[in-house]
Structures are given as C-alpha cells and as structure tokens.
Amino acid sequence: MTETILPPENGFSQRAQAKRSRMREFQTQLIERMRSASSDASPATSQLGVVIGAQHWLIDLQHAGEVVQPGLMAKVPLTQDWFLGLMNLRGKLLSVVDLARFHGLAATPIDKSSRIISFSPALGLQGAILVERVMGLRNVETMSPYSGSLLNGSAYIGERYVDTQEQLWTELDLSLLAKDSRFLDIGRA
C-alpha cells in the first residue's frame, strides 16, 4: 500500500510553519518583556535600544508598538526616497520609513537583522520605522548623561547618554516624530 502525501492546507511546509510559530513566540516574549519592564520601572528608565544609521538610539517603550521582521512593502509612487511604502501588519496598513535615509544617511539594508518597529496605537499614527538592529532593553539609570554637542536639534531627538561600555545612546521620541511636519510630508515636491 502506498502512502499519499498531501500538500499542507495553507501552502506552507511544516518547516516554514514551525519557523513562523517560533517567530510568533519570540515576538510574544519580547512584547511581554517590554510590558513587564515598562510596568516595573519608569518609562524613562527602560527603553528599547536600536541601531539606526550606525548610531545607537533609545525608544520609550510606551511609544513602541510591535517589533517585526520587514515584510513585503507596497511602493507608493511620487514619495520621498526615505518612505519605503505600506506594509500589512495583522490587517493594518503601516507607513514604513527608513529613518536613516530620513536623516540623510545611507539606506538601511533589509536583511536578517533589520526590524520594523511600529508606533504605539496611542500615538495615533499608523506608522513604523525601519531599524538596522534591535539591541534589547536598556536601563538609562545605569548610563551617564552625555554633555557633548546635540545631533541636529530636532524636537524628537532627546537626551544623550553613555553606557558602561562607552557607547553613546540618543533618545528618539516617537511621539514627537509622529507630529513632525517633515516626517509626515512623504510626497515629493
């Protein structure tokens, strides 16, 4: 008697389904850790560390939504080069911006370490930013204030700190970025 092998019901192999399941578990654990950290410490203390344009940034956990791998993005014609397009995240369309390009730096490569960080629903913007890498949670209380020069004086760029490994970190305020007129104006002139 021969055994009939049926294709998977939804078109994914078992291997691909297992990988997706592990990714969902990882995302769920990360979200839970972020929520736990934000409830255990003040919002200014626990922040998400990311790399954007080879610089280290801190994002307030209250302002960050989901952290996901980049998916398919629909290009939108006649938009700025830093506007990557629209991405479907669990049925919601997000506007995705390459923040490095927005700051005039080289485009962020989309590879296995890059991530999309969506804005918290509380910010009222269906947006997200592309980052090179997520570095995990950082505790600002273990860092020293940096007294050097400011980056560019934008309202959404906050305090700067140096960690115990002498790494410079800069706060990125997504709530103010979501209101920045230049950030919101994605159309080419």
Sum up the structure in keywords.
single chain; alpha+beta; OB fold (Dihydrolipoamide Acetyltransferase, E2P); six-stranded mixed beta sheet; 12 strands
Describe the structure.
The protein is α+β, with helices and mostly antiparallel strands and 189 residues long. It has a single domain (14-184), classed as OB fold (Dihydrolipoamide Acetyltransferase, E2P), CATH 2.40.50. It has four helices and twelve strands, in the order H-E-E-E-E-E-E-H-E-E-E-E-E-E-H-H. It has helices at 14-40, 99-102, 174-177, 181-184, and strands spanning 46-52, 55-60, 64-68, 73-74, 83-89, 92-98, 115-119, 127-131, 133-139, 144-145, 157-162, 168-172. Strands 9-1-2-12-11-10 form a six-stranded mixed beta sheet, covered by helices on one side. Strands 3-7-8-6-5-4 form a six-stranded mixed beta sheet. It starts with 13 loop residues before the first helix and ends in a 5-residue tail after the last helix.
CA(first)-CA(last) distance: 69 Å
Order of strands across the widest beta sheet?
9-1-2-12-11-10
Largest sheet: 6 strands, mixed
The CATH superfamily is known as: CheA-289, Domain 4
Number of DSSP helical runs: 4
CATH class: Mainly Beta
- What is the CA-atom radius of gyration, in angstroms? 19 Å
Order of helices and strands: HEEEEEEHEEEEEEHH
Write down the overall geometry. Answer: globular
**Structural class assignment:** alpha+beta
